[in-house]
Write a structure and sequence with these properties.
Distance between the termini: 15 Å
Largest sheet: none
Order of helices and strands: HHHHHHHHHHHH
Radius of gyration: 20 Å
Strand content: under 5%
Oligomer: single chain
Structural class: mainly alpha
């Protein structure tokens, strides 16, 4: 990627959470103006490692590290607004760790403690993005997909999710001796109504990711019956995550459009699964080459203007 080192790209968010606001102000106050983009690249690297660990641990796709890393970096950094620090990158990291914990409950008779750990990770993710529909609901539905319903496990997951939020409020009160500032901020935050403005570069990105995303979506649906039980459940969670993240961004007024960044994990898994399941031959190689050229060209188009 070329534009991440462009000093004009600043860490921004249209409707950040209180903790995200503090992080954004801290990063933008640095004298080194490209700091946000360097942090972004490092965080994307951490996200890619988590994705690879999930795949290696649960054997969802029979492929090498290099393919996962390439696809994840391309889908994460090929779009200019995603090429600087976004709070959603930290959200993605904790969602990835939460998904790992949920997947690790498979086959356990009693996974209460693992459910609490997963909820704790999803709760930390909520500190950077209030997309409750795509985060907490994702954790709860993922647990229900992987395991028979147990009220104890669902309760522990919920308790885990609210623990970081309560802790954050408690620390804020100890420091400021007042809830007024944060409650006023939250009231203003929920009143926010985003305006979706789409330029030519956005249209190109939407069409490109839409084409490959839809192809991967139907490819995974066609292959689910051939997967093992764990793999089938895992990809069902990825499909659910994609759908609910997109719905929340489109129809919930106070959810940022940057929350579409949360789709990079499920999209990467589905794209890699599609490439792995394609029959070997010139058609599959040409399709993969078109994917590479498309996502390498997107940042170049942004630079050209």
């Amino acid at each position: 990627m070329f534009y991440p080192l462009n000093s004009s790209v600043r860490a921004t968010a249209t409707n950040p959470t209180p903790l995200s606001t503090w992080l954004l102000n801290a990063i933008n106050s640095w004298s080194f103006s490209a700091g946000g983009t360097i942090i972004s690249c490092l965080l994307v690297g951490v996200e890619a490692i988590i994705v690879v660990i999930i795949n290696e641990r649960f054997e969802l796709c029979n492929t090498k590290f290099s393919l996962f890393a390439t696809v994840y970096f391309l889908t994460s950094l090929s779009y200019a607004p995603f090429a600087t620090f976004l709070p959603q990158q930290l959200t993605n990291i904790f969602i990835g760790l939460g998904i790992y914990k949920i997947f690790s409950t498979y086959g356990w008779d009693d996974a209460g403690y693992k459910a609490f750990d997963a909820g704790l990770l999803f709760g930390i993710a909520l500190l950077f993005s209030f997309n409750i529909l795509a985060i907490y609901v994702l954790g709860l539905v993922s647990l229900l997909i992987f395991r028979p319903y147990k009220a104890r496990e669902a309760t522990l997951l919920t308790l885990g999710a609210v623990t970081p939020i309560i802790f954050y409020f408690a620390v804020h009160y100890i420091i400021s001796q007042s809830y007024c500032e944060i409650t006023d901020y939250l009231a203003q935050w929920f009143k926010y109504h985003k305006k979706i403005e789409i330029n030519n570069h956005d249209y190109i990105y939407i069409i490109s990711t839409g084409f490959f995303g839809v192809a991967a979506f139907f490819s995974v649906l066609a292959q689910r019956n051939k997967m093992n039980v764990l793999g089938s459940k895992a990809f069902l969670i990825f499909i659910f995550m994609q759908i609910f993240t997109t719905i929340s961004v489109l129809f919930v007024p106070f959810i940022e459009t940057a929350d579409l960044k949360l789709n990079t994990i499920p999209t990467t898994f589905m794209l890699v699964a599609m490439f792995c399941n394609m029959r070997k031959g010139w058609v599959s190689e040409l399709f993969f080459l078109i994917f590479l050229l498309t996502f390498y060209a997107l940042p170049l188009l942004w630079i050209i203007g």
